[in-house]
Structures are given as structure tokens and as C-alpha cells.
Amino acid sequence: MTLNQKLTHCVSIGITTKNRWQDLQTTLTKIAEFGLEELPILIFDDGSDQPCSFDLSVLPFKDISLKRFTESKGLITRRNQLAQAIQTKYYLSLDDDSYPVSGSLQNAVEFAESRLDLLCLSFPIYNPILGHYQNHSLQQQPYQVRFFVGCGHLLHRENFLQLKGYREELIHQGEEMEIAARAFQEGYYCYHFPNFEIHHTNSNISRNWWRMDFYGSRNQVLWNDWYVPSQLELIKQSRTFVSRVSQSFKVRRIGSIQGEMIGIRETYTYKNYRQKMSLELFKRWEGLPRS
After folding, report:
1. β-strand 11-17 against 152-156: which pairing, if any?
2. Mean pLDDT across the chain, nearest whole number?
3. Which positions fall inside the Glycosyltransferase 2-like domain (predicted)?
């Protein structure tokens, strides 16, 4: 039995996509070139305008499937559905413009198996177009972090589902930090594994910058309301507001300010999600590297 055949029993690759068939084709080609063609791959298309522009069957994968949805419900919803549909213990989640380029998935899984408290493994992520790391390693050995980066990570599927997955009310952005905070309070943690590098080409196709500004800002306000200790929340929310206003002036878009206003209004709507950390626990959280 080959190394990848052993991995097929415990790891599946899940990819969400929408209107980026060329990016997806490149990603799948790179995954095969990296040597992961024996892993099961499940792709969920969140309501693309056009059908897939290439033939999946010509790629060298042993088990690959594409499920298309006619209605778009967002990538957070689709990632939850992928976690439910995948049958293996671990779910290697990749964006349609992200793929592994170096290191060992086998070693990453071996480390994951050594941690009974694992929610997710974060990886170093490099953008070859911009020429810099979006998520860099601080140490040569694995270490605990606050949360993980969405474009490439390894989830412990059962623990993820036990936490009931991502909050779909977030709509777009920030879901990784939200579930990581919930997990942190339940004794499940995120770790950074430096020896498995992901390239993220960060395609701008289908990106809506106003939407990213709006939900990034709105969801940060909600996160502060849900998890920051009461004695620190006003300070945290004020700093968030100043940061978002500054960003809006810098990029000349008002989405961040609009997101702030809506987020403040919706804190009451989602007050049942409040699970504020104690001051001691929050200091532990803040003392960890980000991702």
C-alpha cells in the first residue's frame, strides 16, 4: 500500500468554488502534480453562472466528484455541507485558488493524530503573485495558534461537527476565528504546522470588495460582542471602529463603516450567541500567535 493510499483512509480534500473554473482547473492540476491524486476530492459549486469549463475525467484522480447547486447560499454554508458529506476523519479544505507546493501531508496528519484536543491545523500560506506570505511560520516545530486561515487548512471533522460547524449567519468572512474561539472554550485548539506549504494565488475573479469590507467589519463587531470580556468590550469595539473608519478613508470605500453600523445593530439580534470569555481565558487567547 502506497503512502497516499494510507492517507485516503483518513483525509479527503474539499473545495468550494463559484464562477472560477480556470482557477479550479489550475488548482486541481497542482494538487495532482504534488502527488495527492489518490485522495478523495469533493467539489461544491455554489451556483456558478456557467457549467464547468473542463472535463474532470481527464485529470488523474482516483475519486473526484463535483456537485453543482443552482442556488447560491455562500461558501460558509457550502463548507459546512462539505464537512457533513466527507466521510474521512480529516478534511483538507482548499480554496479554488489554493494548493500545496511543499512539505508532507503525511507528517501533518501524524501530528494531528498526536493531538486529542485538535480542531484544526493551520499552514504557511504564500502568495506567489504578490511575492509574500499571507500566513508565515514563526517556528520550525508545530505550535498553538488562535485560529486558522480559510484558504488552506486541515480540520478534524468530528470535532468541527460537534461544535455544529461555522455560524452561517456570518455570511462571508471571519468564520474561522469565530469557531476557533468557540472551540477554545471547549478545550479544542488550533495548531500551526510549518512543514506543509500552501500557495494562494488570491484570484480577484468574482471578488466583491464592498462585500468583503462590509462583512469583515460587521463580523468583527459581532465577534467582539460574543467573546470579548464585558470589562474590555467597549475598548475593543472602539478600537475596531477607529480601525475600520481609517480603512474606509484609505481605500475610499464605505463598506467598512456600513458594516460597523449594521454589526452594532445586530448585536441584539444575535445576543444568544454570546459566550464571553473570562478575563483570564481571553488573555490566554490574546497571548497566542494569530494563525
Report:
1. unpaired
2. 93
3. 12-143
Asked whether residue 242 falls in the same domain as residue 176, the answer is no
- Domain final residue, candidates 154, 171, 200: 200
70/172 same-domain check: yes
Q: Does residue 259 share a domain with residue 167? A: no
Show the 3-state SS of the chain: CCHHHHHCCCEEEEEEECCCHHHHHHHHHHHHHHCCCCCCEEEEEECCCCCCCCCHHHCCCCCEEEEEECCCCCHHHHHHHHHHHCCCCEEEEEECCEEEEEECHHHHHHHHHCCCCEEEEECCEEECCCCEEEECCCCCCCEEECCCCCCEEEEEHHHHHHCCCCCHHHCCCCHHHHHHHHHHHHCCEEEECCCEEEEECCCCCCCCHHHHHHHHHHHHHHHHHHHCCHHHHHHHHHHHHHHHHHHHHHHCCCHHHHHHHHHHHHHHHCHHHCCCCCHHHHHHHHCCCCC
Give the total number of structural domains in the chain. Answer: 2
Summarised one tens digit per residue, pLDDT across range 131-178 is: 999 999 999 999 999 999 999 999 999 999 999 999 999 998 999 999
In a domain, residue 287? The reply is no
Over residues 183-200, the mean pLDDT reads: 98
